[in-house]
Write a structure and sequence with these properties.
The structure holds 2 protein chains of 2 kinds. Chain A is of the alpha+beta class. Helix content of chain A is 51%, strand content 14%. Classes of the chains: A alpha+beta, B alpha+beta.
């Protein structure tokens, strides 16, 4: 395993979970964790266990809902889905992140003063 | 924002549903792992490998659990729960320490809470009236002659009512009521009851509403109107079984049917506000017409109009009062009234303020000693536990976490102590609230209420921090790992620790010193008070209120009095008996006396306390006859016009002359001085008597205000009571079952506020001293234990047992001496603040200081002796062998 994986910033996991649920619909914890790993191209350093703290936090804020159900291969699991308020929050947070990353991109692209390319 | 609130709410809910949520999470994680393993198996791993990889990828089940718990619940409370559980375990293991600590704390906190509720009841809580902050007591500025100088005539009262513009209402009550002034008839044995005459608007002015029936109407306060009464709550409850049907019924008072028109609320206790320690059963209207000729009768109070300040009202009173007429029919009689206004609250409890503040300080000092003592105990424990703390630090507990744990321990101790203390305080306050032997105002409403509970919590938390912080910081400072290494070798942690504990003991001794000095000064004052020359002999005398059957004239009354006295004197063991209308230190009234034919400047004469007495009273009460003689039954009608005066009157009216044989004018009648007696402390044990005179019951010009039979006998009053009562009944079947009161009891009642203060401060001082002794013992015993080896070596090298013992004792004395010096300096500065509470004692009273030093040194010697003896008995061989 390469040790150059990305450490997750505080709060980013919550946003990833929201986005995953918005994109995939209803999903259980394992599925969400796998999906994030796949989408990030295995670049995110994720102890899958940490996802449960994120899930309970989002649930308590009323942004996602969870319900026990049965998976495709007949396994009992708790399935989460995003709520209307969760979508609203996702839209806000996503916009914020995009602005922030755009700014960060511009700042980091800054050339040394007076330098020539 | 809404989401945050929802989250907080859910967190609280989650905290209480921990079990269910944990189970759900475990199920969720199990299903997660199962799915991961399944996926891994699909990629061709062996089952073992698949499981290992799944677990590794998950990253620790326990960590995930903890994180989720922290995210969903209240981690602060979780930690507190852990700390509490752990603390319970440690404290249970160290049961002896826990019990001692909790008991000491409980005592300290109980005393504090009890004093707090007394202070709260007397000084802080508003009086039980409507808008009590506008109620004002009106009384003359100088009161040299007791109640007569604190009251006004009916005419003056009405004039003031009409002319003032500052008061919404002015009212008053008859100030010369004696206890048991009525008897309730219509029962086998008449019941003595106390009834106060109040002006028509008395209750309305105070803002007291009856719980049943109504108050007096103006018509009911007119001459010859139908007699009515309003009952106090307690009287209604005990005598009428709280029967609501009592309203409108007539009760028989002194043979007159009196209609009950109302019942007052339980919160209104006349006695506790206006005359501490007295019980009042009922109220009747003060009929102004009946008291026109009676002189100063009414104690006045008023309710300020909204917006009028006390200063404004005072300046108006300063204008009005000198102009008031004592008697409208005699405008030429100048009463020279003054009217000094004080807020009712200050009038009722003002005198108690300083005493209570001192009491509060004393109890605070005691709590401080408790805290210092506990600090010391905890320090000793901490050094024993340093190994444990170091171990826990090594296992990953942070310093703050350890301090938090130790403070939790202190908090738990003080909370337990507070709970126990609150229970103890409850017992003490309910005892106090039912005490009538302490003449303290408002004492009856002392109770543990919300404020007291809040105070308890505050005291508990503050003391937990006070006694817990130093040991907690101390045991978590420095190199904890060092302690771990030390723990094996045992007991050689630095002198710094010892120094801290010694400092604490010195502080304890100093604090105890201040308390003991305070208590000592108060005790000395009290002893002085007990040895004061009262002017009469309280021992072996007792008084009982006699119903003389309302005789028609003076001759009949004198005959009745004589019969009572002569019959009572036939009882074996009775030395002498006599009757007076008043006894000292209870009710009083005053008239005037002057030398006949002399002119006096205003202010030269004083109100003179007057007692209408039978022959024999002077001797029965134990008054000392200085000159002349007592009255005699055989005095014929000419010589009946005699007066007995006290030394002060004799000295003031006839300076340098023999008073006996002089002619005087007493109460408007010419009389001859037949005797001079020693001054009697008539209104307070602490102040010298004023002008006093005794007039004979046989003189038709003077009407007595009551009938107090005083019996002098070596038999205990209890043994006499039955036979005296039998005689009184045989003479007058309507004699109510009045109490036979030892005169000493009357004196005790008068000194009770001081006794209350002295008793409590002494108890606190004794507790403080005991705690200080415990502290000294603890520290010295600990040093001896710690230095066992060293002492062993010394003894092996030839130190004698005596020398070892001496050195331990010397160490004790050094600590105590430092504390003593510091304490004395502080006491010296502080005792000046209680000068006004002392009686016949200087704040720098040498005896008190010397006594305190001897007491403290003695106690310290005792506390140091036990460990010193143990040190001397150390067997060097054993001490050196046990490493």
């Amino acid at each position: 395993m390469p040790d150059s994986k990305l450490d997750l910033l505080q709060g980013t996991l919550d946003l990833m979970v929201l986005q995953t649920l918005a994109a995939m619909g209803t999903q259980h914890g394992y599925g969400i964790a796998r999906r994030i790993e796949q989408v990030s191209g295995n670049e995110v350093l994720l102890n899958q266990g940490t996802i449960y703290a994120s899930l309970v936090r989002l649930q308590q804020r009323g942004w996602i809902e969870g319900e026990w159900g049965t998976s495709d291969n007949n396994r009992k699991a708790k399935f989460y889905s995003i709520t209307r308020r969760g979508r609203k929050q996702l839209a806000e947070d996503a916009a914020y992140w995009q602005r922030l990353s755009a700014v960060m991109g511009r700042v980091l692209a800054m050339e040394p003063e007076g330098g020539e390319r | 924002m809404k989401d945050r609130i929802r989250q907080s709410w859910n967190r609280v809910r989650a905290f209480f549903r921990r079990g269910a949520l944990d189970q759900e999470l475990d199920a969720e994680m199990a299903s997660h792992l199962d799915m991961a393993i399944e996926d891994n198996l699909r990629t061709g791993m062996t089952p073992e490998e698949a499981r290992r990889r799944a677990l590794a990828h998950f990253g620790g089940l326990q960590q995930a659990r903890e994180r989720q718990r922290a995210a969903r619940g209240l981690p602060f409370l979780d930690v507190l729960g852990q700390d509490l559980r752990f603390t319970f375990r440690t404290l249970r293991r160290d049961l002896a320490f826990t019990i001692v600590a909790v008991l000491i704390l409980a005592l300290g906190i109980a005393a504090n809470v009890a004093v707090f509720s007394v202070v709260d009841a007397i000084l802080v809580r508003p009086l039980p009236f409507r808008n009590p902050e506008r109620l004002v007591r009106v009384a003359p500025l100088i009161a040299t002659c007791g109640e007569s100088c604190r009251t006004y005539t009916t005419d003056a009262t009405e004039e003031f009512q009409q002319r003032n513009r500052s008061f919404e209402q002015v009212t008053g009550y008859f100030a010369f009521t004696s206890a048991d002034n009525f008897k309730l008839m219509g029962r086998p044995v008449p019941l003595p009851v106390t009834g106060i005459l109040v002006m028509q608007n008395f209750f309305q002015t105070l803002g007291v509403e009856p719980i049943l029936g109504r108050l007096f109407t103006p018509e009911e306060c007119l001459h010859k109107s139908r007699p009515v009464t309003v009952l106090s709550y307690a009287f209604w409850k005990t005598q009428f079984g709280a029967d609501r049907g009592v309203i409108g019924k007539a009760i028989d008072l002194n043979g007159t049917p009196v209609t009950v028109i109302g019942v007052l609320p339980e919160t209104f206790d006349f006695g506790s506000v206006f005359s501490p320690g007295a019980k009042v059963d009922l109220f009747a209207p003060f009929i102004m017409y009946d008291f026109r000729d009676d002189g100063n009768d009414l104690a006045l109070m008023g309710r300020l109009r909204p917006g009028v300040t006390l200063a404004q009202a005072q300046s108006e009173a300063d204008q009005l009062f000198p102009k008031l007429d004592a008697d409208l029919r005699h405008p030429e009689w100048k009463a020279n009234y003054t009217g000094h206004l004080v807020f009712m609250k200050d009038y009722v409890s003002g005198r108690m303020r300083r005493s209570l503040i001192v009491l509060w300080c004393a109890v605070g000092l005691m709590l401080l000693i408790v805290c210092v003592n506990l600090s010391n105990l905890l320090l000793a424990r901490a050094s024993a536990r340093s190994g444990e703390l170091a171990m826990r630090h090594a296992l990953g507990a942070g310093r703050t976490r350890l301090i938090r744990q130790l403070l939790t321990e202190s908090l738990l101790l003080s909370a337990t102590g507070a709970a126990l203390g609150l229970a103890m305080a409850w017992v003490v306050t309910s005892f106090l609230a039912h005490q009538t032997s302490f003449a303290l105002p408002l004492l009856l409403r002392v109770r543990i209420d919300g404020a007291a509970v809040l105070w308890t919590v505050a005291v508990a938390v503050l003391s937990a921090v006070a006694f817990g912080l130093i040991p907690a910081l101390r045991s978590c400072s420095g190199d904890l790992a060092e302690a771990l290494r030390d723990a094996g070798r045992g007991a050689s942690e630095g002198r710094k620790h010892d120094a801290l504990r010694s400092t604490l003991v010195i502080a304890e001794v100093a604090l105890a010193c201040v308390l003991v000095v305070g208590a000592g000064l108060l005790l000395r004052s009290f002893v002085h008070l007990l040895s004061v020359d009262l002017g009469f002999e309280p021992a072996h005398a007792a008084a009982i209120a006699v119903d003389d059957g309302s005789p028609h004239n003076t001759a009949e009354r004198a005959a009745r009095w004589r019969e009572v006295i002569e019959q009572v004197q036939t009882i074996p063991g009775v030395e002498i008996a006599g009757i007076s209308d008043n006894v000292p230190l209870s009710r009083n009234r005053s008239w005037g006396i002057s030398a006949k034919g002399r002119q006096y400047r205003p202010g030269e004469l004083q109100g003179t306390f007057v007692y209408i007495v039978s022959p024999g009273y002077l001797k029965a009460m134990g008054l000392r006859l200085i000159e002349g003689r007592d009255f005699r039954w055989s005095d014929d009608s000419k010589s009946q016009n005699g007066v007995v005066i006290n030394e002060t009157v004799a000295r003031s009216l006839w300076p340098g002359e023999h008073a006996v044989g002089q002619m005087a004018n007493a109460g408007g009648v010419d009389v001859r001085v037949i005797g001079v007696v020693a001054d009697v402390r008539e209104s307070s044990v602490e102040s010298k008597g004023g002008w006093q005179m005794y007039l004979p019951v046989t003189n038709a010009n003077f009407g007595p205000e009551g009938t107090e039979l005083v019996v002098r006998s070596n038999l205990p009053p209890g043994a006499l009571a039955v036979s005296v009562m039998r005689i009184l009944r045989s003479i007058n079947p309507a004699q109510p079952a009045t109490d036979f009161r030892p005169i000493q009891q009357i004196v005790d009642h008068a000194t009770s506020p001081r006794r209350f203060l002295t008793l409590l401060v002494s108890i606190f001082a004794a507790l403080g001293l005991t705690l200080a002794a415990l502290g000294i013992y603890g520290v010295i015993a600990y040093t001896v234990t710690r230095r066992t080896q060293e002492i062993g070596i010394r003894m092996a090298l030839g130190a004698s047992r005596g020398r070892v013992q001496r050195s331990v004792l010397l160490r004790t004395m050094r600590l105590v001496a430092i504390g003593l010096v510091m304490g004395s300096v502080v006491s010296f500065a502080v005792s000046r603040a209680i000068v006004s509470l002392l009686f016949g004692t200087q704040p720098n009273d040498a005896v008190t200081y010397a006594g305190m030093a001897v007491l403290l040194l003695g106690v310290a010697l005792l506390a140091g002796y036990l460990p010193a003896r143990r040190a001397a008995r150390i067997d060097p061989i054993i001490a050196l062998r046990t490493n």
